[in-house]
Amino acid sequence: MDISCSQILDALQAQIAVIDANGAICYVNQAWRDFASSNGMSADYEWEGNNYLAACKIGSTDEGLQAANLIEDVISGLRDEAYLEYPCHSPTMRRWFMMHVAIIPSTPLCVISHHNITDRKLIEEKVEELSLHDPLTGLGNRRLFLQESHRQWLHNQRYHTGMSVLMIDIDHFKIYNDYFGHLAGDQCLIAVADVIQSNAHRPDDVAIRFGGEEFLLLLGQTDAPSALLVAEKIQAGIMALPLHTPANGPITVSIGIASARPSSLSEANRLVDLADKQLYLAKESGRNCCKITHPS
Ligand SMILES: Nc1nc2c(ncn2[C@@H]2O[C@H](COP(=O)(O)OP(=O)(O)OP(=O)(O)O)[C@@H](O)[C@H]2O)c(=O)[nH]1
User: Is there a contact between 56 and 25 (Cβ–Cβ < 8 Å)?
Assistant: First the structure.
């Protein structure tokens, strides 16, 4: 069979370039040319002779500098090969690539290939999204709460600001569920979750389904009076839902609120314990009310 190496390389999907020990391009395959022309380069652009290392360093982006460092490591023999995953979004499309760098044995040349890994990245994003959210209501789940509360706790420690947690529980939900059935119960949970979510306006506000008919609202950089205002709006919003209890009254919630600065508590989870205690007091006081604590 009489086929050349470049015929084989031109048949591959990966964009491939061969560079010399100084980073100068000696060869690019057809996929490389096609990708470049789909990004606005002329189809007959002369790639050979251009310095790829210098191109990576232009603009001093993190990915560009990382790529240049890895290529230099392979050229100098510090590594046998190197991989780098990096985003390369166009104005119309999100996409990611993986760069692979290796020395061509018995030569001073290095082969660089770029593989499109967008499908895998999108699936990873989806899996991450599913693992952090409640499938019924779409709110965040406990895992997201742990992640976010920890992140915000560190932020508040750094900037000496406070944060609040609202623990929200539907009153007599068991009676509702038993009377109207589980499916209607699910619709009620979705409607309540929507009200809570619609009151989470700021970037640091995170609405969570904590379990069953219990919800958490994490309010970053929010003091006790502001948290109480949000809680009252949620109560009013839920009472205004076009749903009613078996006794023909509005759906109500009890809310426990805890508000603190990280300097006064050891960890974010303590805020949840405190909100839980306030929720218990709200239930004890006859339900459909808020109780608040803000240790100094
Ligand atoms: N439909 C539905 N019901 C749920 C879900 N998760 C938990 N529940 C129900 O929520 C009810 C919670 O009951 P309880 O813990 O006794 O609370 P409650 O009846 O609201 O009473 P108080 O909180 O004291 O006002 C139980 O009947 C659970 O079966 C769910 O995903 N869907």
Answer: no
pTM: 0.79
- The domain tally of the chain equals 2
Provide the token pair at 265. 């508590």
- CA pair distance 29, 292, nearest whole angstrom: 66
Domain boundary among the residues 121, 155, 174 is at: 121
pLDDT at 264: 67
Q: What separation in Å is there between the alpha carbon of 173 and the centre of ligand 1?
A: 5
As for ligand 1, residues whose beta carbon falls within 6 Å of it are 136, 169-174, 177, 182, 185-186, 189, 212-213, 283, 287
Residue 289 maps to which CATH number?
3.30.70.270
Task: Give the whole-angstrom CA distance, residue 224 versus residue 166.
Answer: 10
Q: Do residues 247 and 148 both lie within one domain?
A: yes
Give residue-wise pLDDT tens across range 64-107. Answer: 999 999 999 999 999 999 999 999 888 888 999 999 999 999 99
